[in-house]
Structure formats: structure tokens, C-alpha cells
Design goal:
By secondary structure, this protein is mainly β. 15% of the residues lie in helices and 45% in strands. It is built from one helix and five strands. Strands 3-4-5 form a three-stranded antiparallel β-sheet. Strand 1 and strand 2 form a beta hairpin. The longest helix has 15 residues. The two termini are 24 Å apart.
């Protein structure tokens, strides 16, 4: 569990340093057990929209995207890896940019 926490902290700090102006992100996690007593982890990421970089997409609206990569390791062995792109809602302008979840 300690390694999972360290991996998640590394992800958080790399998210925070992605933009020169400082991407403001919050990463939390919870651990659970299934009915057959197998452990699993849920991660929750939220990014303050006003700190993300929005670009005009194909539909002509503004949208931010952040690439997320999470690695779970135990005793130096990678047990699971997930990579995905977190997209903001499309907005007409970024004056009141929404948060990304």
C-alpha cells in the first residue's frame, strides 16, 4: 500500500509541474475490498479549470486535455498501469473555465 501511495504522489507532483504557470490538481484515493476479500484502489483526480491550458477543438469550442498515467507497483514489480486522457467539457470561452474530473 505504501508503494501505491508513493506512485500516486509522484503522479500528483508531475501533474502540478506540467505547466509553467502551475497546474492546480488534487489527487486522492480510497482502498476497498470486494466481497471475496480482494483489494482494489479507486483514484480521484480534479483539476482547477482556470489552471489548465484550453485549445480550440474540431467543433470550434475550447477544451483542455491532460494525459494521466498511473502505475501501481509492489516490491519493484509493476502490478497495474493505466493511461488515459482527461478532457474538460467544451466551453465557448475560458473566462469561467470548469473543473476537470
Amino acid at each position: 500500500m505504501k508503494r501505491i501511495f508513493i506512485s500516486l504522489l509522484i503522479l500528483f507532483f508531475s501533474l502540478s509541474s506540467m505547466r509553467g504557470n502551475g497546474l492546480s490538481a488534487l489527487l486522492t484515493y480510497s482502498t476497498f475490498n470486494t466481497p471475496d476479500n480482494k483489494a482494489y484502489v479507486e483514484t480521484y483526480i480534479s483539476v482547477l479549470g482556470s489552471t489548465a491550458f484550453f485549445i480550440k477543438n474540431a467543433s470550434g469550442k475550447m477544451q483542455a486535455s491532460i494525459e494521466i498515467g498511473i502505475t501501481f507497483s509492489q516490491a519493484g514489480v509493476i502490478k497495474a498501469y493505466k493511461k488515459y486522457t482527461l478532457l474538460s467539457p467544451e466551453v465557448a470561452d475560458t473566462v469561467n473555465a470548469p473543473q476537470l474530473h
